[in-house]
Amino acid sequence: MLKYLIRRRSAAFTVAGLVLLVFADAPALAEPIPDDRPTPRLIKVGWDGGGPQKMLDNLERVRELPFDGHTFKLGMRLQNAFWKEPIPRAGFQVHFDAMEELMRQDLGNAQHNLVMIWCTGEAGWDWFNDDHWDAALHNMRILTELASLGKSDIFFDPESYPKLTHVFGENAFWVFNYQDQPNKDQYSYDDYRKVIFERGVSYMEMLQEVDPDLDILSMYGFGKFVDLLDTPGTANLFQKIKDSTYYNLLPAFYAGMLSVAHEGFEIFDGNEPAYYYTTAEEFYRDTHQLMSLGYRLLPEGLKHEFREHYRMSHAIYASDLYAMNPNATDQYRSFFVQEMTRDQQAEILAHNVYYSLKTSDRYAWFYTENDIDVMTGEIPQGMLGAINKAKQYLKEGRVFPNAIEEVVSDARLAYERKAAGMLKRGKATSTIAVPPPTIDGLLNDTAWEEAAPHSLQITLQRDEAGYVLQEPTTVSFTHGGDAIYLLIDGELKQPGKLKSEGDGRDGDVWRGDDIEIAISDPTGVSGSKQFYLLMVNPAGTRYDAMVTPGADGGAHVFDTTGYNPAWDVAMTFPDGRWVTEVAIPWSEIGGKPRSDQDLRINVLRSYTNQPGINYASFSQTNDGFLNQDEFGTVVLE
What is the dihedral of CA 326, 330, 336, 341, to 10 degrees? Predict the structure, then answer.
């Protein structure tokens, strides 16, 4: 039973012993971004962080860097809070000693630092278990005390990293994702929101007790749901948030915090989605939307607390915009390197630094990966100059020129066109199966002896970067009577590491290892380019949806409730293999193609245990598996 009971709640009331949260529904009038806000601070975040000792060891360089602060990272175990047992305080002592020494030094530009807190749940950690919460709160208290000693704020990272099994072991999970919770079969989404609200209350009270001057910069916040904030109706809004999977419990935690927030406390929404902004409009639009409507994610009585305590920040994905290696082939967005000059890359970096700072309240954070280490001097030439350029424009009150936005747009289009010509399009012939194969996961049907196997391809980006698929997989096609049949046959070197995700039919099976099949409507009569998406994981859990592409490049609409096709699947796992047989009736995907039509299809196997490779597909992709322009072709004999 919970020992953290309701103490003060203007935003809640009880009925029959249950805590019910009432959420605001009516949109507010938009408020303009003030032009007189102080210039926010640029904070360095990334793989190159370290503890206070690393800053001490490199202090001469750090003083002169154009960053107003850095994040202190104590290593993956110590900086993670969500363990089932408290971490002994002695393990942190070396960092307290270094921080104490650091506070005696002249920090130069690095006056506004933050201490990192991670949120990866150890296997079995449970929000409803008081002992587990006590352990997490104990761990966060120590990190908070370190921040207080260093006159720092908290950098709260609600993302989870369960793939780091060497740190967290098997079955670690995302603590702010309802679908990942170990007891989701016992407790509903609303049950979790209620208990997490209370945990947010106790976390805020701990912060006040340790140091009321501490504030929080959160990597993700309500900005994760900025595109949903104008959804009519609170129930509809939260249903969409629940369906969005990632961070769908985070608003409840922040609601609890804000319900007891003290005067002067501020929480800064780090808005990691700003990683992918390339226009000034995106920074202004989403800042405006979030600060106007973000209160809708809070109980109705907390609208004032949102205005009083919630602030905006933005992220800069610096190592993607401006790679360490000017000839890099594995950037997340390859077009920056492949279609833009180094000077143009520096210009878009300066552009994003400028607009991140311009539209943030106190903090903007500058994120790098891989080999960049600003403290030790491993910095690509030109990166610091871009930062200084952006800051100079702000200091002088000048508007940063937006001409680079068109350059970026043209570069993106040029890369997409080039990539389209480079993609290895899937092409296959489907033989007529007489008799059709028996769907049993075995390879003893004559139909498969006559069907040619086709190797699945890793993405163009990974292919160009030299990645190699460690567990090759093939797909074969045959058809007969009233169905199309597929055989997916792949190597399986570590059967024990296959991961099955998803809670029942139409659950999130794509988050683990799975097989996915996307088929364009063969008849084409809908005129809407709708297609069908079928998935199955190693445990046999299925997902199926009718997908309607969004207008003008908007988000796809996935209809799972109105589409429940009768398709057949069977799997076997013979030595070193994963074999999947599928039968899909034509009637379940719009009908059989005419004699003059080919079938447009893509088939995917996802991988959770191959570094750098998320999936391989029948038709090679560039910008996502669900892009119909990149589907392959199957000719029916």
Answer: 20
Q: CA-to-CA distance for 129 and 85, rounded, in angstroms?
A: 12
Distance CA 499, CA 495 (A): 9
- Residue spans of alpha helices (H) in 175-312: 189-210, 234-243, 250-259, 280-293, 303-309
Give the pLDDT band (50/70/90) at residue 332. Answer: confident
DSSP letters for 95-123: HHHHHHHHTTS--TT--S-EEEEE-EEPT
Q: Using CA atoms, how far apart are residues 566 and 587, in angstroms rounded to an integer?
A: 9
3-state DSSP call for residue 159?
coil
Q: Do the Cβ atoms of 457 and 593 come closer than 8 Å?
A: no
Task: Determine how β-strand 632-636 pairs with β-strand 427-432.
Answer: parallel
How far from each other are the two terminal CA atoms of the chain, in whole angstroms?
64
Q: Is the separation of the CB atoms in 255 and 200 below 8 Å? A: yes
Strand duo 216-218 + 267-269: pairing: parallel
Nearest Cα to Cα of residue 448 among 403, 479, 490, 414: 479
Measured between alpha carbons, how far is 206 from 138 in angstroms, rounded to an integer?
9
Specify the DSSP element, H or E, that contains 558.
strand 557-559
Place of tokens 């890793």: 458
- Dump pLDDT digits (tens) for 184-226: 989 999 999 999 999 999 999 999 999 999 999 999 999 999 9
pTM (two decimals): 0.78
- Rounded Cα distance between 352 and 359, Å, is 11
* 162, 168 contact by CB (below 8 A): yes
